[in-house]
Amino acid sequence: MIGIVPNTDKPDAMEVAVELARWAAGTGEGAVLAPADASAIGHPEWGRPLEEWTGVRLVVVIGGDGTFLRAATMCAPLDLPLVGVNVGRLGFLTEIEVTDLYRDVSEILAGRHRVEERMMLEAQVERGGRTHARYLALNDVVVSKGPFARMVQIAAYADGVRLDTYRADGLIVSTPTGSTAYALSAGGPVLSPELRVMVVTPICPHSLSTRPIVLGGDRTLRVLVGSPQLETLLTVDGHRAERIQPGDEVVVRRSEVVTRLVRKQGYDFYQLLRRKLSVDDREDGD
Q1: Active site annotation includes 65
Q2: For residue 281, what pLDDT is reported?
Q3: Among 97, 122, 164, 212, who pairs with 201 as Cys (CB 3.0-4.6 Å)?
């Protein structure tokens, strides 16, 4: 059985999802989608709640990296392996091209692949001494200012020890997977994806000496916002989660859940990095 998670905002992705489901039925594998996705592509009969995705051998995500991040938070707690089909733009997480879809999926189902376990983050919003909300992230957790052009003051503590108090537009806490996303744009380092660490990267800090910090994955990071008069937002994997209220603390730690990312044989992270970021590799002799 194949699970399918399409970007239902893109007609091309929905068309590919329908074709893939029919192909899977023709091979005897069968396909299943979340009920909302199945209805969106016009085939509600293919829908089944996630807790009923028993027998799913592979989840095929059709879209860009944003769709893959959504699928990861859905499927990682169920220990389902994912592979991405790129109908987006950059596509760091979506390895398969549409033109190679059926060949590559056949190869994966035949066992000719490898699986990477990618670290995820768990973020909790502590409010009034209780856990108000809990989120799972594959890329990053971001605390940032609202729409006004004013900085916020953010204090960060690792296992109770103060890292710094930042006056900035916000703070990004990312995984190694997320190091090539928003954190990279904010000046953070690129990390090899198999590492188990967190990167704390300030956004536009008002200090020349403020730099990103890499923390061991066993650390617990507590973030406190010291500008309660300003609107401050919590964003998880690029999706706005909620507004941070005065007195809230955001606690971020490594999750026990991992994303199982399927890679084709011959996959090379550094080759992908050069290609996706348009780094000139002519001197490599490739």
Answers
A1: yes
A2: 44
A3: 212
